[in-house]
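Field reference: sequence -> structure
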Amino acid sequence: MGRRRGAELDAAIRAAVLELLAEHGPDGVTMDAVAVTAQTSKPVLYRRWPDRRALLRDTLLGIATSAFPTVDTGGFRGDMLAVLRAWAALFTGDSAALMRSAIGAVTADPELAATFRTDVIGARKQEMDAIITRGVQRGEVRADVPVDLVRELGQSVLWHRLLISGDPIDDEVVTRLVDEVLIPVTRPYYEV
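Structure field:
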């Protein structure tokens, strides 16, 4: 195998971090283990990251910030379906164990927690605010909707299913969340 550089090496390192995180949790992501799994050397890792926590933070934030494309489907329902389907995709299949381990990493690392709240959760809040604002402008969402609660409603159910109940996370539950919870909660009041 030739010497990997640049994007190819970076992808191998990040894949190794995610594999170790999913299999062994945050404590399993050591510089030694990443070097072995990625088939590289520890000096290569230390040239890019000062320690395992920085490597883990960088990898998790990269995944989290790229998992959610900015959407504008032309309607509140479509936007909410797109966002919740992106969450559901993260919370199912092979990535489910990774997401549970990522939460463990966030709770064990105050710096990662602060960065995650600012860079990932902060960005998700802004995107949800934009979706709700567009819904208000289109007349699909009432202007006095409690944005701080609505933007978390659907996601919180999916997080609960992932971390607590183990109930299925599928397109049926996403559609029900949008059609039976979010739309009724946000629907404008009309005088009769």
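Note: The two ends are 73 Å apart (CA to CA).
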